[in-house]
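Is this the right way to post structure tokens for a design question? Let me know if I should format differently. Anyway, here goes:
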């Protein structure tokens, strides 16, 4: 397969890209597997008793006819304001480049820009029609229009949901007795509604009640029973400050003391009620504060229902899921300010072990308006206050890295005195921009991707090199697992939205039971409704099922995906800790693209790329179609010659096209965002 050895990206030298998926060993594997698989999938008559490729689900072959989801519209009247803000960022960078004698990267052409824009803003590569529509347009403002269109598309919601899911550790079952679907649906809806970031965070930090009635409570329930871990995770996510070491001792590398850690914990240790303890008549423990409250003061009916549920399970009248359902229905957050104490082994001179700590913040002060409010309200108000610049600074740096590939502070969640920003003036300017935009994250991204700098070719940067990164263009990066999956899906499914996660409203009939007011019979009816709703949604998922794969966007699939799924092969985070997504290249990744069911789905009649290639009247048209679909540009003359030779030498023309598709999927140009 000569093309696998010689193929290089369209206008860029192939040596610009990292040496991943390109060794001669992998080329040889590609040659072997490509020939075997394409021959097996060749479109030729077969005996009746011979195994035949499975068919794609009919639902994914039909383009959607109605709106996918309701999304807050972009204000296009602000475009001149956006351009002015983008130009100011460019000007600051130009001064930085001049100071350091840095060379600006070349401008992207239309094919490169449309591919990057779709990947970065919609989470997938463009279709052939989308790419052609953009590249053939003559408007001088077509890049601005594309950016605005993508920012109010379902793809934007899906892509940025994936981004936040890795930060917020979104799992469907973070523990056996917490059901997170309503919370996950709420996160996704908040992105679609373009909820201001400060309001979004405030709601998560102060939410009371059960997830079914107040989905934002999911953020606090993610660390149920671990008040100290909650403090560490919350400051790391929203302030990008790591204080976890100070839980056990004064921080060895930063300014934080153990007492400061416990003062902050005193503000965030609102009570969490454990259903298991309640069921057995125990006490609800707040954790390190050693404060207790009788559970029946909160849920007076739960103990009685729990008794009957256990009895019904023993008598085989209910399945074991009823107990989990009861636990999930009773899990909740509620505020109870009480004394919080230092640990028993506290060893510093400024206090004694088990002393009561006065709740306090890490810097600044709690706003006067909430001085008399409950502790969680005081904490959330301080956190999200406009006067707390670190809150705005942290998210500005996060979004800068999301767009540019490298943060002005790295790691993005480790602001500390010794970790000096690469360009402090720009970071403070971006912080001012975040405040000017009233924490409108989408509008902030709109400004960043409208800069001339963002629209330059990607630059290779090795963070271990010790060399400064001058932001002369976005840093070259591999697709995330979710971008890869959604891009492959674009090559397969005409309708990538056959299945979407249920919303809170969809789930409400099965999860809104108030266990404090219902009797046992009413509880049983609610449980039956819950099971029915889950069954109905499973049937909807099955409409997109192909050989065990649900052909839907990554944001709509199980969170996280099973260990054998392509998403896991390519580094989807496990969601056990903050930002655990991986970018390491592995052999299973190569095999998944060579011989996985997702790749086979592309070569099945009814897939987008199969049908597009089948419509072509000659080999030249087939080659152009494959390159446009996979790489968003046509090949040059030499590459076209090699590609046509590949097809002609295939077992059949269809098999040769299959070889070419497999080849391009495994190039660095496909895997990386240039």
């Amino acid at each position: 397969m000569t093309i696998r050895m010689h193929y290089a990206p369209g206008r860029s030298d192939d040596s610009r890209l990292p040496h991943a998926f390109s060794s001669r060993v992998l080329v040889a594997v590609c040659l072997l597997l490509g020939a075997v698989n394409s021959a097996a999938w060749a479109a030729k008559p077969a005996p009746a008793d011979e195994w035949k490729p499975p068919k794609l689900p009919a639902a994914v072959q039909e383009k959607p006819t109605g709106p996918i989801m309701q999304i807050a519209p972009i204000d296009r009247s602000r475009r001149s304001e956006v351009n002015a803000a983008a130009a100011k960022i460019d000007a600051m960078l130009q001064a930085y480049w001049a100071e350091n004698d840095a060379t600006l990267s070349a401008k992207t052409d239309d094919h490169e820009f449309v591919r990057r824009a779709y990947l970065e803003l919609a989470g997938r590569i463009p279709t052939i029609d989308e790419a052609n529509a953009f590249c053939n347009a003559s408007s001088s403002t077509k890049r601005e229009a594309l950016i605005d269109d993508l920012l109010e598309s379902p793809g934007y919601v899906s892509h940025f949901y994936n981004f936040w899911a890795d930060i917020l550790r979104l799992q469907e079952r973070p523990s056996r007795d917490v059901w997170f679907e309503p919370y996950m649906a709420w996160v996704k809806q908040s992105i679609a509604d373009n909820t201001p970031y400060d309001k979004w965070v405030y709601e998560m930090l102060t939410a009371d009640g059960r997830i079914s009635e107040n989905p934002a409570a999911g953020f606090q329930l993610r660390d149920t029973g671990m008040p100290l871990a909650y403090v560490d995770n919350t400051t790391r996510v929203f302030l990008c400050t790591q204080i976890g070491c100070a839980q056990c001792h004064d921080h060895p590398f930063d300014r934080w003391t153990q007492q400061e850690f416990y003062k902050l914990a005193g503000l965030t240790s609102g009570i969490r009620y454990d259903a298991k303890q309640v069921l057995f008549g125990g006490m609800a423990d707040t954790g390190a504060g050693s404060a207790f409250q009788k559970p029946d003061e909160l849920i007076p009916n739960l103990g009685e229902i729990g008794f009957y549920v256990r009895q019904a399970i023993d008598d085989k009248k209910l399945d074991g899921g009823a107990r989990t359902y009861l636990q999930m229905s009773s899990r909740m957050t509620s505020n109870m300010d009480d004394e919080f104490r230092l640990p028993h082994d506290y060893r510093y001179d400024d206090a004694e072990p088990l002393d009561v700590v006065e709740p306090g913040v890490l810097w600044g002060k709690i706003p006067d308006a909430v001085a008399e409010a409950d502790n969680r309200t005081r904490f959330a108000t301080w956190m999200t206050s406009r006067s707390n610049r670190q809150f705005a600074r942290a998210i500005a740096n996060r979004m800068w890295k999301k767009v540019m590939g490298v943060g002005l502070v790295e790691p993005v969640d480790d602001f500390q005195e010794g970790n000096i920003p690469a360009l402090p003036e720009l970071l403070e300017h971006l912080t001012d921009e975040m405040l000017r935009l009233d924490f409108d994250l989408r509008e902030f991204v709109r400004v960043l991707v409208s800069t001339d700098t963002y629209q330059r070719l990607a630059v290779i940067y090795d963070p271990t090199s010790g060399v400064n990164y001058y932001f002369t263009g976005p840093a070259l990066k591999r697709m995330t697992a979710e971008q890869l999956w959604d891009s492959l899906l674009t090559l397969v499914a005409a309708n990538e939205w056959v299945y979407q996660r249920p919303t809170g409203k969809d789930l409400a009939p099965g999860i809104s039971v108030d266990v404090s007011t219902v009797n046992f019979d009413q509880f049983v009816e609610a449980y039956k409704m819950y099971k029915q709703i889950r069954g109905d949604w499973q049937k909807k998922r099955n409409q997109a099922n192909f050989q065990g794969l649900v052909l839907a966007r990554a944001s709509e699939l199980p969170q996280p995906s099973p260990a054998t799924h392509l998403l896991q092969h390519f580094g989807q985070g496990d969601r056990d800790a903050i930002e655990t997504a991986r970018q390491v290249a592995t052999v299973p990744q190569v095999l998944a693209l060579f011989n996985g069911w997702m790749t086979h789905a592309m070569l099945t009649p009814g897939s987008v790329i199969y049908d597009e290639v089948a419509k072509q009247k000659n080999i030249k048209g087939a080659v152009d179609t494959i390159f446009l679909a996979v790489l968003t540009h046509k090949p040059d003359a030499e590459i076209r010659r090699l590609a046509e030779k590949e097809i002609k030498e295939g077992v059949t023309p269809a098999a040769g096209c299959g070889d070419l598709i497999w080849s391009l999927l495994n190039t660095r140009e496909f895997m990386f965002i240039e």
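Format looks fine. Someone answered above. Worth noting: Residues 2-53+603-673 form one domain. Confidence is low (pLDDT under 50) at residues 1-48, 274-298.
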